[in-house]
Design goal:
The chain has 2 domains: about 400 residues, Up-down Bundle (Growth Hormone, Chain: A), CATH 1.20.1250; about 45 residues. Helices cover about 75% and strands about 0% of the residues. Helix 1 runs antiparallel to helix 5 and helix 1 packs antiparallel against helix 7.
Length: about 500
C-alpha cells in the first residue's frame, strides 16, 4: 500500500524512511538488539560483582563504583548523545556507540585490577549514552504509521522492561558456568550483530540544516545530571545529611534549574521546551521515571531475598524472574496494539501503575518459609502485567508527534528519565532498607535468626516504598494524561512510504 503525505517542506531522510515493511522490521531487530545490550548492563554485572571482587581484591566500599561509574557517565551524557544523533546523523552515532560500547566491554572484561574495571564501566556508560537515544530515535523515525508504530514500540518497550530480568538470568548463567568476565564479553556478540545489521540496514539521515550545538546547555545539563546521580549514589554509602549527598543533590538541582532557564533563551536549545510541554509527553516522561525507580524494588531486593534468604543459585534467581518477563511482554503488546489505540492512555497507564503497586504490596508478605509458586510467582506476574501497561505506551507517547529534528533529544530525555529514576530508586530504597534493618536490630540480641528477620524487614520496607512510587505514578498519570484516543497531528512530518 502506498501512502503519500505532504505535510511540510522538509523531506524525511531518516533511516527507515521510504523502506519496505520487511526492511523496517529488520531495522527493529537491530535496534532492539542494541537496546538489549545497554539495558542488560544495568543488572548483568550485579550478580557477577562478588566473583569480580574476589578475583581483583577490591573492598566493599569500592564495589559500588563498578555500578556507579556506568550510571554516572550514562545518566549525565544522555541528552548530549541524543542531540548529537540529531545533529550528526542517527546512523553514524548509533554505529559509533555500538563499537565504543563493545570496546569498553572488552576492556572491562580483561581488567587486571579495579581501576581498569571501573574505567571500562565508565566508558560503557559514555558510549551507551550515544547508543541508547540513537536507537530510540531510529525507532521513532522508522515507524510512522500508527499500527506498525504500536507493534514496534510494544516490542521495544518489552525489551526495555524485561532487559533487567534477562540480565539477572544471563549474568547468573555466565558467572556460574564460565566467569564473571563473560558478563562483559557477551556484549561483543551483541555488538557484532548490531553493527553488521546497522551497516547494512540503516540509512544515512543527517539533517540538511544542522543547527549549532548548545554548548552552555550541554555543560549545564551534563553537570546537573552528574550531580543528581552522584548525590543519590553517595546516599548508599553516606548519610543523607552528608555534604557528599545533599551538596551534590543541591548543586545538581540548581544547575538543572539554570539549564531550564537557559533553554528559553538559547538560539539553538539542547532540549527544546516544546519536547516537554505536551501533556501526554510530560505524563509519559514521569511514568518512565517512576517505573525506573519502582522496578528496583523487584530486581534488587527480590534478588537479595532469593539468594540470601532462600539460598537460590544465581541461575535459579534469574529463572525466577522469567514469568514476570513473560507477563510484561503479553501486556506490552496488548497495551500498544489494542488498548491505547482504542481507549487512549488515561485508563491504561494508571491501571498498570496500580497493578505494579499491588505486586509490590504482595511481596511485603514474604517470609523465610514462603514458597515460590504460592507467594513469589503471583506477585511477579501481577507486577509484570502492570509494567507492560506502563513502559511501552509511555515510551511511545513520549516521542509521539516529535519532528525528525528533535527525535534524538526526545529519545534521550526518555532514557534520562529512566536512568535518573533508577538511580533515585536504588539510592533511596537501599538507604531506607538499611535504616529499617538497623532499627529492627535495636534492643535485640544479634543472632542468625534475628539477622535474617532484620533482612526480611528491610526488604519489606523497600517493597512498601516501591508500592508508594507506583501509587504516586497512578495519581499523576490519571491526572495528566488527556482523555480519549491519541490524535494524529496533521502538521507532524510523516515519512513517505514507497
Amino acid at each position: 500500500m502506498t501512502q503519500t503525505t505532504t505535510v511540510d517542506a522538509r523531506v524525511d531522510t531518516s533511516p527507515g524512511a521510504g523502506s519496505a515493511p520487511a526492511h523496517r522490521w529488520w531495522v527493529l531487530a537491530v535496534i532492539g538488539l542494541a537496546q538489549l545490550m545497554v539495558v542488560l548492563d544495568a543488572t548483568i554485572v550485579n550478580i557477577a560483582l562478588p566473583s569480580a571482587q574476589r578475583d581483583l581484591g577490591f573492598s566493599d566500599s569500592d564495589r559500588q563504583w563498578v555500578v556507579t561509574a556506568y550510571s554516572l557517565a550514562f545518566g549525565s551524557l544522555l541528552l548530549l548523545g541524543g542531540r548529537l544523533a540529531d545533529l550528526i546523523g542517527r546512523k553514524i552515532v548509533f554505529l559509533v556507540g555500538v563499537v565504543g560500547f563493545a570496546a569498553a566491554s572488552a576492556l572491562a572484561g580483561a581488567a587486571g585490577n579495579f581501576e581498569v574495571l571501573v574505567t571500562g564501566r565508565a566508558l560503557q556508560g559514555l558510549f551507551g549514552a550515544l547508543l541508547a537515544p540513537a536507537a530510540l530515535s531510529l525507532l521513532n523515525t522508522t515507524f510512522t504509521e500508527a499500527r506498525e508504530r504500536a507493534k514496534a514500540f510494544g516490542i521495544f518497550g518489552a525489551i526495555a522492561g524485561a532487559g533487567g530480568g534477562i540480565g539477572l538470568l544471563l549474568g547468573g548463567l555466565l558467572t556460574e558456568h564460565l566467569s564473571w568476565r563473560w558478563t562483559l564479553y557477551v556484549n561483543l556478540l551483541f555488538a557484532v550483530l548490531a553493527f553488521a545489521g546497522g551497516v547494512v540496514l540503516l540509512r544515512r539521515g543527517a539533517p540538511a540544516n544542522r543547527p549549532k550545538l548548545d554548548l552552555p546547555g550541554t555543560v549545564l545539563v551534563s553537570a546537573g545530571l552528574f550531580g543528581l546521580v552522584y548525590g543519590f549514589s553517595n546516599a548508599e554509602t553516606h548519610h543523607w545529611s552528608s555534604p557528599q549527598t545533599w551538596g551534590f543533590l543541591a548543586a545538581g538541582g540548581v544547575l538543572l534549574a539554570v539549564f531550564g532557564w537557559w533553554q528559553t533563551r538559547a538560539a539553538h536549545p539542547l532540549l527544546p521546551l516544546r519536547v516537554l510541554l505536551d501533556r501526554n509527553r510530560g505524563a509519559s516522561f514521569l511514568a518512565v521515571a517512576i517505573s525506573g525507580a519502582g522496578m528496583f524494588g523487584v530486581f534488587l531486593f527480590l534478588t537479595y531475598y532469593l539468594q540470601a534468604s532462600r539460598h537460590y543459585s544465581p541461575v535459579s534467581t534469574g529463572l525466577a524472574f522469567l514469568p514476570m518477563i513473560g507477563a510484561l511482554m503479553v501486556t506490552a503488546q496488548l497495551s500498544t496494539n489494542l488498548l491505547i489505540p482504542r481507549i487512549g492512555p488515561k485508563p491504561v497507564v494508571p491501571l498498570g501503575m496500580g497493578l505494579a503497586a499491588a505486586g509490590m504490596v504482595w511481596l511485603t508478605g514474604l517470609d523465610m518459609t514462603s514458597g515460590y509458586a504460592a507467594s513469589v510467582l503471583p506477585a511477579l506476574v501481577v507486577t509484570g502485567l502492570g509494567l507492560g501497561l506502563v513502559l511501552p505506551p509511555a515510551m511511545s507517547l513520549a516521542t509521539d508527534r516529535i519532528g525528525p529534528e528533535d527525535a534524538g533529544v526526545a529519545s534521550a530525555a526518555v532514557n534520562t528519565m529512566q536512568q535518573i529514576g533508577g538511580s533515585i530508586g536504588t539510592a533511596l530504597l537501599n538507604t531506607l532498607a538499611a535504616s529499617a534493618a538497623t532499627d529492627y536490630l535495636k534492643g535485640r540480641q544479634p543472632g542468625p535468626q534475628v539477622i535474617a528477620q532484620a533482612q526480611l524487614h528491610s526488604y519489606s520496607t523497600a517493597y512498601w516504598w516501591s508500592a508508594g512510587f507506583f501509587a504516586v505514578g497512578l495519581l499523576l498519570t490519571a491526572v495528566l494524561y488527556r482523555r480519549g484516543r491519541v490524535q494524529q497531528d496533521p502538521d507532524a512530518p510523516v515519512a513517505v512510504h514507497m
